[in-house]
Amino acid sequence: MSTVRQRLRVARNARELADSAALARELSALSARHRGDSNALRLAVVAHLKQTLAAGRETARLWLNEDGAGTACAQRLSGLMDAVVMALFHHATTDLYPRVNPSSGERLAVVAVGGYGRGSMAPGSDVDLLFLLPYKQTAWGESVVEAMLYVLWDMGLKVGHATRSVDECIRLSHADMTIRTAVLEARRITGDEELFEELTRRFDAEVIEGRAAEFAAAKLAERDERLGRAGASRYLVEPNVKEGKGGLRDLNTLFWIAKYVCRVRDVDDLVGRGIFSAAELRLFKKCEDFLWAVRCHLHFITGRPEDRLSFDLQREIAVALGYTEHPGLRDVERFMKHYFLVAKDVGDLTAILCHALEARQEKPKPRLDRFLTRFRKRKPKTAQASESFVIEDDRLNVRDEGVFARNPVELIRFFQIAGAQGLAFHPDAIRLITKCLKLVDGALRENPEANALFLEILTSRRSPEKVLRRMNETGVLGRFIPDFGRIVAMMQFNMYHHYTVDEHLLRAIGVLAEIDARESSDSHPLANELMPTLRDRVALYVALFLHDVAKGRPEDHSIAGARIARRLCPRLGLTPAQTDTVAWLIEQHLTMSIVAQSRDLSDRRTIEDFAKIVQSPERLKMLFILTIADIKAVGPGVWNGWKGQLLRTLYWETETVLTGGHSAGDRKSLVEQAKNDLRQRLTDWTDAEFEAYAQRHYAPYWLKAEPERAAQHARFIARADAAGEKLATEVATDAFRGVTELTVLAPDHPKLLSVIAGACAAAGANIMDAHINTTTDGFALDTIFIGRAFPEDEDELRRARRIAESIEQSLRGEIRLFDIVASKTRSSAKGRPRAFEIPPEVTVTNAWSDRHTVLEIVCLDRPGLLYELTNAISRLNLNIASAHVATFGERAVDVFYVTDLTGAKIASAARQTSIRSRLMAALQAEDKRAAPAK
User: Fold this and answer.
1) If we measure between CA atoms, which residue out of 595, 604, 597 comes closest to residue 849?
2) Residue 193 DSSP SS3
3) Which of 395, 598, 690, 852 could form a disulfide with 426 if both were Cys (CB 3.0 to 4.6 A apart)?
4) Whether 401 and 377 share a structural domain
5) Total tally of structural domains belonging to the chain
6) What region, left, alpha or beta, does residue 643 occupy, with left being phi > 0 and alpha being psi -120 to 50 degrees?
7) What is the number of alpha carbons within 13 Å of residue 380 lying toward its C-beta?
8) What distance separates the 2 farthest-apart alpha carbons in the chain?
């Protein structure tokens, strides 16, 4: 938040939004005006209070825009609601149901609970009310409560309410932790003060007393469950401001526990109780203020209780909070970096509180593996290989507070020992480390021993990700490796990456460590097999740790990252040869993924060009493993079996070339070998039948069809021939690769792939690849690979058969795909904000293939895109030989290998320019149609 905003803050309070006494007088005036007409009175009261609330919220919004004070805004909105509730209670008890001779039972207190009880509300927050009775409900109390609730509901408010006696509150608080928390937060708004004081007194004595450990454990367990639902990482790029890790609910949980255990009423009291230092209290309030500002802006902008900071809202919030663009970082990325730093601070405060609870023995102690162990006293013992540290209850601690000042290298050794011995980190040591960050200076960075220790941490076979993450959270990692410090909490404003850059890098190290430990062989068997054969695993770890370290700079991050590696690796103790390998891996870290997902791997030119980049089998192995770790660390669901298969195919084909395997000159022998392999599989065919079938395929088919798939194709075509079918489809699932195959046999024509793509788009199926073959007798044999939608084969096959049936119907002219796809596209785009703008790019080149012209189209992904592109290509009178579809979040990269109608490459420069122009025009026209109306 800018300093200009901070200077604008002025003492504005809720009383300026609405005066409860004045509002009560206005409602009384309405009562007098509509005496005798209860319905008219209720409508007039609802309208007046609704207008008051709307005007007050608008003023609060304007003040928030001016001063950026999030906590103050939440308190103002809560005070505004107090005024409404107080006036409404006065109206109900004075104008509607006055008490002439009130009995002892005709008492009522209106109490705010939940977030409202804390005195903080967002514009769309629920209004949580407790109507407190002395012992049982009376007719008068029931009438008052009913009158208030009906008005609040008619105002459009979401009201959470309960009507209970003091005894019921106490009894239910014992049995239900949610109710106990609500009562803990209770705040009297209006009504009988003695009744509320009785509840408070009895709650403290009968519920809180002696149950602190139970409450703390329950709230921390509840937090873990909530974070499991919302996303366990605090570095998700579309975080939930309220429920996500590091969000407002975490701050609430901290205060609930502290309030319960320490018996405080205000967060400021935590300093006097020794829970927080004055600086930590300031940090708590700073985090709370920022998060409330974000949440209030979210509700004001969307007009609803929206707590998810989605991509389409992030830029608007960034502008509202006053963030501006800097070189290499957009305004939205600067805002989100601040958000994630705040979320990290909230995590630090959680750790501080948990340690304070442990000191009071109100919470069990954790181990590094995060399993809780029973508290047990033991004599501290000296950590192995160091006299500076001691082990207390399986956690590494400092021997005294001067350890790091005497020898700053111990700041790095602390983490190395913890990782090597599998020890958790003692909170006292972590707190001391955060106070000693200035010791991580140029001298320590150049210290050979410190760098050797860091390299041990990074390449450890025992949980390097956990130790590096703790180094990052304390700030040591970013100071020791300043280039890493620049990307801490940095988000990438796209839908592909699920985490901040630093979190992505740490997760990538975790994936590599799994491969190194031979774990998860089911998902990447070849990587597990290759890892032990590497001559230099250290270079691979360093390269992976640094591969995105140059993100956020106004230049290609791969080239800038390689330059950083050449400067940093010698400092870490790597040899010139290792440094060269690390720099090369960083510079090429995207190459294998791009080639595998968007090039024709059956085209020899693709493999030979990639082999020229890689140059050696050792580098190929390292790049292959790095690519897998990089993709898997992007986020849940990004890695799948299909990508694994593409990478393995590229690896094996390239390895064959690099080790002196077959070349283009072996083409004829390879075709014959493929035919012989298929013949051996078709043991029930006669030689004449096989020879006739073999003549139906051109040479390229034999070079790229896998033996198993070639056998499936042969039997599929034979069944179609036997049934006299000119049009046939077949479906099959592949659980390992996570795809479903649709095979289509039909008379060949240029629009065939477009029809297939349209049928898939109409069914909502995501095409991942397309293998297209033409037979010598004028048929097309196309295999389309779509992403699975169902885990069970039976459900997935049923879906695939429906798609295959729609393909057949469209090819027979029974349905009009254009209308269906257009309708579905409009429906999908309706109301969908366009958070991202990707200017379309079209490349037409003959350099990527010896037999085909290659069209590469990069644009914003949207439903029906492949259908639009294949339709446009068919109108250009081009034959599509193969299509390769890759999606990186919101960015689509579709590559088509094409020829003209005679089977030749597009050699004319003028024709290439025309193709490029017409495809660009088609994309721009679709962009305009898809754009939401302003």
Assistant:
1) 604
2) helix
3) 395
4) yes
5) 5
6) alpha
7) 15
8) 110
Q: Looking at residue 381, what is its pLDDT?
A: 60
- The pLDDT score that the predictor gives to residue 370 is 37
Q: From the CB of residue 666, how many other CB atoms can be counted at a distance below 10 Å?
A: 12
Structure tokens at 441: 């200076």
Per-residue burial over 379-417, b if 16 or more Cβ lie within 10 Å, else e, is eeeebeebebbbbbbbbbbbbeeebbeeebbbbbbbbbb
pLDDT of residue 2: 46
Structural tokens at position 176: 């239900």
Question: How many residues comprise the chain?
Answer: 934
Q: What is the CATH number of the domain that holds 56?
A: 3.30.460.10
Give me the helices (H) in 303-330, please: 311-320
Tokens of 517: 């430990």
At a CB cut-off of 8 Å and minimum separation 6, what does 155 contact?
46, 49, 50, 53
Tokens of 726: 């000119």
d(CA 254, CA 267): 10
**Final residue belonging to a domain, choices 661, 693, 708:** 661
Buried b (16+ CB within 10 A) or exposed e, 431-453: bbbeebbebbeeebbebeebbeb
Same domain, 527 and 476: no
Q: What is the CA radius of gyration of the chain?
A: 34
Phi/psi of residue 167, nearest 5 degrees: -60, -40
What's the pLDDT score for residue 586?
97
Q: Kindly give, in sequence order, each residue whose CB lies less than 8 Å from that of residue 1, ignoring residues fewer than 6 positions away.
A: 68, 290, 293, 321, 322, 338
Q: 174 and 223: one domain?
A: no
Domain end call among 661, 692, 710: 661
User: Cα–Cα distance between 819 and 817 in angstroms, integer?
Assistant: 5
Domain, as residue range, for 845: 726-930
Averages of pLDDT over each 10 residues, the chain, 934 residues: 45 73 93 90 94 94 91 94 96 90 84 90 94 89 94 95 94 90 91 94 89 77 67 68 86 81 78 81 91 95 90 89 81 88 85 67 45 40 72 88 94 94 88 92 96 97 92 94 92 70 93 90 84 95 96 90 97 96 96 92 90 94 96 83 86 88 64 89 91 88 82 92 91 84 88 85 80 87 86 89 88 75 58 65 93 92 83 89 81 90 91 93 70 45
